């Protein structure tokens, strides 16, 4: 199974912490005394302890170059719920978000299925390592205008899924300028922030808007975060909307009652993230193990003549199999994918599922 972006490399550290801190769970003898207080109705805003711990953790994984206000954190059932929540808050049915390609296939579900929102691809190409350009953004924006579609925002993923790359500081500054000029929202999915394992370092949009040279309407800036990738907890469904817009925070809080994180989960995670020694060790060790796995994987692929896009983040590589296609078409890509699935018995993801603009690329998860 190399199609699921799961981070299982540091489960032993989590296991060790749980054994040392049994009182963190209300389902143990040591934690049972707190069962009643956690089992009854809780504040829909989420446990204060968790929001404070998450805010601190978000700062830590960004190397404390940005700080976060716990009162701006809105809890949701995973990043899936957070994305849908922000779409409901910012757009009406028929409105659109610009999304650079290739992008996470789940966005078509998360942002569209129940909201009626459209996604307009911003075509990025391998010739410049899929960097987002203002020219591509303007082209996508004009396409939407010509179709009489109202663009409400730009959605970016940094670090990128599926590329495993980071968006440069200069590009982020240009994106803020673009969205401010168009008066549209900038939604930044940063759920892989702690998976950056080598240079260049990750820059959060939270850092960019603090720069003196950036003229920015903060009401247009929103961050999506979760603990699914950075901590390896997709089953816990801990998602976060962090908005600099008071009206969005208020609206999202009201909507969060439809997708709450269980109080038991909140209590456990709050205890874990409040342990500074553990968190610091986890972040460092996770990056180290990701770097080792990435290096091992890409080097072995290179030995058999298979290259990958140069990357330094995420739980996957963007593998180039264009030379193995019988012809440069997406139909040929699917033929090759079926060979990999049915004959080699590996589950990898074809680039076409990520709306990639050219055939022959595959995402392969290694963590």
UniProtKB/TrEMBL annotation:
Q: What is its EC number?
A: 4.4.1.14
Q: What are the names of the required cofactors? A: pyridoxal 5'-phosphate
Which GO terms of the molecular function aspect are on file?
A: 1-aminocyclopropane-1-carboxylate synthase activity; pyridoxal phosphate binding; transaminase activity
Q: Does the keyword Transport apply?
A: no
Catalytic activity annotation? S-adenosyl-L-methionine = 1-aminocyclopropane-1-carboxylate + S-methyl-5'-thioadenosine + H(+)
What keywords tag this UniProt record? Ethylene biosynthesis, Lyase, Pyridoxal phosphate, S-adenosyl-L-methionine
Q: Would you tell me the protein name for this molecule?
A: 1-aminocyclopropane-1-carboxylate synthase
The gene behind this protein is paccs1A
């Amino acid at each position: 199974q190399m199609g699921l972006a799961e981070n299982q490399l540091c489960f032993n550290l989590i296991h060790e912490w749980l054994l040392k801190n049994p009182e963190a769970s209300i389902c143990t003898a040591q934690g049972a005394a707190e069962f009643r207080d956690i089992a009854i109705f809780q504040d829909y805003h989420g446990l204060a302890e968790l929001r404070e711990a998450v805010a601190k953790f978000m700062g830590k994984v960004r190397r404390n170059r940005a700080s976060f206000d716990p009162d701006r954190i809105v809890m949701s059932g995973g990043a899936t719920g957070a994305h849908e929540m922000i779409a409901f808050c910012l757009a009406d049915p028929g409105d659109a978000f610009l999304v650079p390609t290739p992008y996470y296939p789940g966005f078509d579900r998360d942002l569209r299925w129940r909201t009626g929102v459209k996604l307009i691809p911003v075509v990025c190409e391998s010739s410049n390592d899929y960097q987002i350009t203002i020219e591509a953004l303007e082209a996508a924006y004009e396409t939407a205008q010509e179709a009489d579609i109202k663009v409400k925002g730009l959605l970016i993923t940094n670090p990128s899924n599926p590329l495993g790359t980071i968006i440069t500081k200069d590009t982020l500054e240009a994106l803020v300028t673009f969205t401010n000029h168009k008066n549209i929202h900038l939604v930044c999915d940063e759920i892989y922030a702690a998976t950056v394992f080598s240079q260049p370092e990750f820059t959060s949009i939270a850092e960019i808007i603090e720069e003196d040279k950036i003229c920015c309407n903060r009401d247009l800036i929103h961050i999506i975060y979760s603990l699914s990738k950075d901590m390896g907890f997709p089953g816990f469904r801990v998602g976060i909307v962090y908005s600099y817009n008071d009206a969005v925070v208020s609206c999202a809080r009201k909507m969060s009652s439809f997708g709450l994180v269980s109080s038991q989960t909140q209590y456990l995670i709050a205890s874990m993230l409040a342990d500074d020694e553990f968190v610091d060790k986890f972040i460092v060790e996770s990056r180290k193990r990701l770097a080792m796995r990435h290096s091992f994987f890409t080097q072995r692929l290179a030995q058999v003549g298979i290259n990958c896009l140069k990357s330094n983040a995420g739980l996957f590589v963007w593998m180039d199999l264009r030379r193995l296609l019988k012809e440069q078409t997406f139909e040929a890509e699917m033929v090759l994918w079926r060979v990999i699935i049915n004959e080699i018995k590996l589950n990898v993801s074809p680039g076409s599922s990520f709306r990639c603009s050219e055939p022959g690329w595959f995402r392969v998860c290694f963590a």
